[in-house]
Automatic annotation (TrEMBL):
Protein name: Glutathione peroxidase
Keywords: Oxidoreductase, Peroxidase
Similarity remark: Belongs to the glutathione peroxidase family.
Origin: domain of life: Bacteria
GO biological process: cellular response to oxidative stress
PANTHER family documented for this protein: GLUTATHIONE PEROXIDASE (PTHR11592)
Transmembrane regions: none
Organism: Paenibacillus faecis
CDD domains on file: GSH_Peroxidase
Active site: C35
InterPro entries to which the protein is assigned, alphabetical: Glutathione_peroxidase (IPR000889), GPX_AS (IPR029759), GPX_CS (IPR029760), Thioredoxin-like_sf (IPR036249)
């Protein structure tokens, strides 16, 4: 199965796949609105705003699995993100990202991160996965990695569509 084949639901409740993002560099992130790391939304939005016209997108997947830090409805999550962080990048419906109930997309992401860039299971909110234009998972970043720290890797992938991140 390819990354683009996974069925997902938008934050507005529309069923789709990741096919519309084929050919883009992606940063897929599990998010939460009541987490100490919630300010990562600001950095994610800055990256999206800066590089969206060059073929980059952030995809946010709210998750309530970590200390109940995303308890709201999709409508509440969308409103929170727009009002507090001016989020315009694509957001999706709430999912589970680990354990038996993990969304198939997240099972795939965790299983296909190449060594030495795999940080392991999803440990908390705001774990980030960088995907190249061909749909290959390039790297996993732990929850505490600030979005700005990922910018050089994003620039590298945007500059050379078939390039991968060097250690």
């Amino acid at each position: 199965m390819r990354l683009y084949d996974f069925e997902v639901t938008t934050i507005d409740g529309r069923k789709t796949t990741l096919e519309p993002y084929q050919g883009q560099v992606l940063l897929i992130v599990n998010t939460a609105s009541a987490c100490g790391l919630t300010p990562h939304y600001k950095g994610l939005q800055e990256l999206y705003s800066k590089y969206k016209d060059r073929g980059f997108s952030v995809l946010g997947f709210p998750c309530n699995q970590f200390a109940g830090q995303e308890p709201g409805t999709e409508e509440e999550i969308k409103s929170f993100c727009e009002l507090n962080y001016q989020v315009t990048f694509p957001m999706f419906g709430k999912i589970e990202v680990k354990g038996e109930g993990a969304h198939p997309l997240y099972k795939y992401l965790v299983q296909h991160v190449p060594e030495p860039y795999r940080t392991g299971e999803i440990e908390w909110n705001f774990v980030k996965f960088l995907i190249d234009r061909s749909g290959n998972i390039v790297r996993q970043y732990n929850a505490r990695t600030e979005p700005a720290e990922i910018e050089p890797d994003i620039r590298g992938l945007l500059a050379a569509p078939s390039a991968s991140v060097e250690p």
